[in-house]
Amino acid sequence: MHKNTACHLALAAATLFSVPALAADPAQGDLQAGKSLVYTCHGCHGVTGYKNAYPNYHVPRIAGQNYDYLVAALSEYKKGERAHPTMRAQGESLSDADIRNIAAYLSSLSPSQ
Ligand code: HEC
Q1: Averaged over 76-80, what is the pLDDT?
Q2: Position 110 confidence tier, pLDDT thresholds 50, 70, 90
Q3: Are the C-beta atoms of residues 61 and 102 closer than 8 Å to each other?
Q4: CA separation for the pair 63, 16 (Å, rounded)
Q5: Which long-range contacts (CB under 8 A, 24 or more apart) does 73-80 make?
Q6: Is the beta carbon of 111 within 6 A of some atom in ligand 1?
Q7: pLDDT beyond 50 at 20
Q8: How far is the CA of 32 from the centre of ligand 1 (A)?
Q9: 74 in ligand 1 pocket by Cβ < 6 Å?
C-alpha cells in the first residue's frame, strides 16, 4: 500500500504532460482506484483467489499477475483483439486509466490470495 503516493504523483505528472508521442507511458496506475474497480470482476473471477465460483467455466486467475501482462490483456479485450465476448464487454467499459489502475491493484496482490 505504501507504493501509492508515488503512483499518485506519477499519474498526476503523466496527466499534466501527456503527449501522444509518449504512448509508452511508464506511469503505473493508482492501486486504490483499481481496488474499487475490481468489484465488478469478482462475480466471475471470484472474491478470494479470483477462482471461478459461478458460472462454472474456466476463468483465469488475475490476482498477482504481472502489471504489463494485465494492461496488455485488458487493452486487447477493449480493442477487440481478444474475442471473448464477456471480457470484451468488460474491457470496453474501462478507460485506459481504469485499466492501469486495475493492473496496479491486481499485480500488487499475492498470487496465492
Ligand atoms: C462475466 C464474467 C467475467 C467478468 C465480469 C470479468 N471477467 Fe475477466 N475473464 C472472464 C473469462 C471467461 C476470461 C477468459 C477469457 C478468454 O478465454 O479470453 C477472462 C479473462 C480475463 C483476463 C485475461 C487473463 C489471462 O490470463 O489471459 C483478465 C486480465 C481479466 N479477465 C480481467 C478482468 C477484470 C479486471 C474484470 C473486471 C473489470 C473482469 N475480468 C471481469 C470472465 C469475466
Answers
A1: 95
A2: confident
A3: no
A4: 30
A5: 74/99, 74/102, 74/103, 75/99
A6: no
A7: no
A8: 20
A9: yes
